[in-house]
Amino acid sequence: MKINFYGHSCIQISSGSNSIIIDPFIKDNPLSNVALESIKADYILLTHGHFDHIADALELAKNDNSIIIAVEELADYYGKLGVKTEIMHVGGGIDLGFCSIYLTYAQHSSSVRSSSGEIVYVGNPVGFIIKINGLTIYHAGDTGLFKDMELIGEQFSIDYAFLPIGGRFTMNPNDAVLASQLLKPKCVIPIHYNTFEPIVQDEKDFIKRLKAKEIQGKILYPDEVLNIQKRK
Ligand code: NI
Ligand code: MN
To answer: Can you give the pTM of this predicted structure?
Structure first.
């Protein structure tokens, strides 16, 4: 299996011919040079409705007849645009055959802009726990630090935790180190940084700070692919 990181919060997890993509933000993402047309996914998972997480969801879904997985309010928004959806809510799970998904709490907001520019709330923001090929992957979405990350770490033996470190809109590196201590994952991969000026961070320093707490961190650069051996 492999994980493609397209920069910002956009990751794609593929196993054989099956694939899911989280928070597709490709075309207007200054960090990614991948052509949207080259990406195919069976499912599109959306953590929340902000532009930098859903920008290419509609086009991707229409190109490949993909199914969008989101909370009811955000799924409803896409359902009205003609996209197939699967509705979930925090605490619930879904088995997709090649992987299973569980929705976690995230401390943030979730809205889209109407055609007249008004803010329209689209339910709660979430994070995802994805179990695939014997691995457990946590994508925290956009979130501030919260103590219940400790509970998520107790519930799931996380192999890879994708945590935002950009600050301003989400956790900063300090908070993400604390989050890592609560979650106890085998490996932390920073996301949601360096995309725009307000969220510029020193990712190498973050990895050093994790190491000082005896936590393994790994930087994935935009458009980098992480190949993972299948585990039984
Ligand atoms: Ni956001
Ligand atoms: Mn964001």
So the answer is: 0.97
